[in-house]
């Protein structure tokens, strides 16, 4: 058995840290929930935070959020697939867009439902993921401004996620200049520049973020306390809101080098043990989690004396030789998670999800009281 836990107190303290931080800078922000993969147990906790806007890249997750609390504002944060247009208008109050054809379909659906659909237009700023290229922005806006029941509430950009392009003052300045050019050309007002994500927080900390960037989308730093810009932790934030615990299902003394002719393993890797010193025996434990659930590269045992030595589809092998603790079958081993490993285990139906307090018992699911966004 394996369980991923959410520490409620630590989540709230991380939220309070960020909320004070953004309030001092007059920046609005929203919580990105995609790492939770629509799990209602954890979404209950996140939706109980005093904030009114939640972003996700899966429409099924936004549907769950709306079912839990229809009063919050939901944002679909990737270009809308044509097949999901109807659901996006239904379950997302705002969507990020880059295609005229898609916006035309969103407009038609919004008209049919007699409602307005808010959109943020994403602009390419060098990351080479989603975004309208800047040279074609005016032509693009000239076409979409004619669409009925579409309300343009912002422009935005995405950085770092695919190619690792970092935000800086010059890129944010270009984003603002694009907004000014659009507003001047078409005599319109665009309220928000959503130029900030977790990776942009250090620019604000160092007073390098222009004041006109007034909307941030935050996921990783809320849940992990990370300074994504340089892969460190922010002082005063918790990096262990989430923790993985996996049960030991076998403990045996075994050689540290396999015996026999070696071929490729499950992942297509052919291991080389030629440079490893052979010792008589080492104590090894097998825990109940595997490649089906996550990559071992993205987890670390909380007990630093434990070493991950291998993994198959649903088992992970640890070397206990240097451990100070006397483990036995049935004990659990705790692991630190990063963003990618949490994303993996949240997407695994084989890993149980629980909310805990600091003394380790499960907090019962309760009816939450939500703060309505004004």
Automatic annotation (TrEMBL):
Q: Does the keyword Disulfide bond apply?
A: no
- What's the protein called, per UniProt? Alanine racemase
Q: Which Pfam families match?
A: Ala_racemase_N (PF01168)
Q: Which domain of life is it from?
A: Bacteria
- What CDD domains does the entry give? PLPDE_III_AR_like_1
Give the matching Gene3D superfamilies.
Alanine racemase
Q: Where is the Alanine racemase N-terminal domain?
A: 7-225
The enzyme's main class, written as a single word, is isomerase
Identify the cofactor(s).
pyridoxal 5'-phosphate
PANTHER family registered for this protein in UniProt: ALANINE RACEMASE (PTHR30511), LYSINE RACEMASE (PTHR30511:SF3)
What does the UniProt keyword field contain?
Isomerase, Pyridoxal phosphate
Q: EC number(s) in its UniProt entry?
A: 5.1.1.1
